Amino acid sequence: MSKHAQPGTVNEMIKLLVATDLSQRSAHAVQRAARLIERQGGGDWTLVHVVDDEAPQDFVAEHVQRVERLLDEQAQQLAAQTGSRPRVLVSSGAVEPIIFEACLGMGADLLVVGSHRKTPLRDFFLGTSVERLIRGSHLPVLRVAQPAAADYRHALAALDLSPGAVQAMASAQRLGLLDLQRCTVLHALEPFPRGMLTEAAIDHQLLETQAREALLSLLGNLHDASMSLPDGCVRVREGEPRQVIAQELQEVQAELLVIATHGRKGLPRLLLGSVAAELLAELPCDILCVPPQG
């Protein structure tokens, strides 16, 4: 796609909101957003920073002013880079409600965040601001973990067999993050535990049947969504989903993973699906998290 081509499959510019805590992790998110804005030839985007309001009021006010100056300087530099100056919003209070309100106010199409803070002792993800933003967002969230040295060259879409899962790919296309000609679609088939069946030969035959049926279902869902991929780019692999997806990412050298963040069918969306949470906690690649529509 050329620098001034429009993203996705429709002729409209996407609107971005970038949440920044001024860390190096957030710097990667800002630069990825800048690349997206530059690639579509400009557009509406906003940098948001939220200051903890539990500190003394004078300190909060001073900190807000200091951050505003820093982000205004950064916005000027980003304008020179992208041709479009981002708005700057610095507020105090609870992080998630302020960011969600800002997304709604600007009509954002995509929320861009950095990765969660990691410690030498343990990699906490659940309970972080990043986890709460992804869990609570009604917009797709791009979790950026790597420097934005180039556009994404290859994407891996890890899908279940529900027709709605393909909508995650459609969202990625619309946002200009996924090219069907440079994409691999993967379904991880979790096998029955050994011992549920009596003979290994029957186990193997059943798994082959399941894999064949899963592939046909996946191809059918893609066809219904008018998505055509190159031969061999739609795959079903047996194994634990997290391990299968991590292995496939390495094999196809994908820089972006696309996942749907719905939980189990019939349950309220109070938690991320367990597989999505594990992937976000452990994988070092950028991940586009697409919530259910409607």
Automatic annotation (TrEMBL):
Subcellular localization: Cytoplasm
Record field: transmembrane: none
Entries under CDD domains matching the protein: USP-like (cd00293)
Keywords: Cytoplasm
Recorded GO CC terms: cytoplasm
Quaternary assembly: Homodimer.
Family, as annotated: Belongs to the universal stress protein A family.
Protein name (record): Nucleotide-binding universal stress protein, UspA family
